[in-house]
Specification:
Helix content: 40-55%
CATH topology: Alpha-Beta Plaits
Low-confidence stretches: 201-206
Mean pLDDT: 91
CATH architecture: 2-Layer Sandwich
Structural class: alpha+beta
Radius of gyration: 17 Å
CATH class: Alpha Beta
Number of helices: 7
Shape: globular
Strand content: 5-15%
Largest sheet: 4 strands, antiparallel
Length: 206
């Protein structure tokens, strides 16, 4: 695992991932998955676009694009004193830290545990190549199959794969992703080919 704790910068793509401390499960039961997303949307969505995710028992993956500096500062204007003199990187970090703390506090209280829940710092890899970006998105969506939770990644319920094929309102940036793939049919076909024949990326990711 790469111990990359460099700052996150506006208008850049990142692979965000982390796991439970000492490999501990982050999701103790099914309801935790939806609560995790609820908290992620509450604290992190104001500063990032979410392009893909997959939540597994003891770790998670997100593909995000950080929003503009103006959007981020406007979000924090009523929450942080002297927001305009704060480095924007610290505001982005604050959003993620608030999310991790909020989720961990609830899990600790609910399951009578103490101490940290997540490994620190959370992992982040900047994405600067369009081909890599597309491959990473397919990697994230096929993680349930890769880790043996299902035989077919399309059966795994805790990823954003099916959200991209749905027409219901979503907080995931569906139009941008489908545009990368040239539409839903290519999205499905390329994911299937990747799941069956894709290059092994385990040495890059969890």
């Amino acid at each position: 695992m790469k111990n990359n704790a460099d700052p996150l910068f506006p208008e850049r793509y990142y692979h965000i991932y982390n796991r439970g401390i000492n490999g501990e499960d982050l999701f103790k039961e099914d309801r935790n998955y939806s609560y995790f997303l609820q908290k992620y949307f509450q604290f992190v969505l104001p500063v990032v676009q979410i392009l893909a995710y997959c939540l597994l028992k003891n770790h998670f993956h997100f593909l995000i694009r950080v929003k503009s500096e103006k959007v981020i500062r406007d979000h924090f204007r009523s929450k942080v004193r002297e927001v305009d003199v704060q480095p924007v990187e610290s505001l982005i970090s604050k959003a993620f830290n608030s999310f991790f703390k909020s989720y961990a506090v609830t899990i600790n209280k609910t399951y009578h545990r103490t101490g940290r829940l997540f490994e620190e710092p959370f992992l982040r890899i900047p994405i600067n190549d369009n081909s890599y970006l597309t491959t990473l998105l397919m990697y994230i969506h096929t993680n349930g199959q890769r880790h043996g939770f299902v035989e077919d990644f399309t059966d795994y319920p805790h990823s954003s794969y099916h959200i991209h094929l749905d027409d219901q309102p979503t907080k995931i940036d569906r139009p941008e992703v489908l545009d990368w793939f040239g539409g839903k049919d290519n999205f499905i076909q390329m994911h299937r080919e990747y799941a069956n024949h894709g290059r092994d990326l385990e040495h890059y990711f969890l």
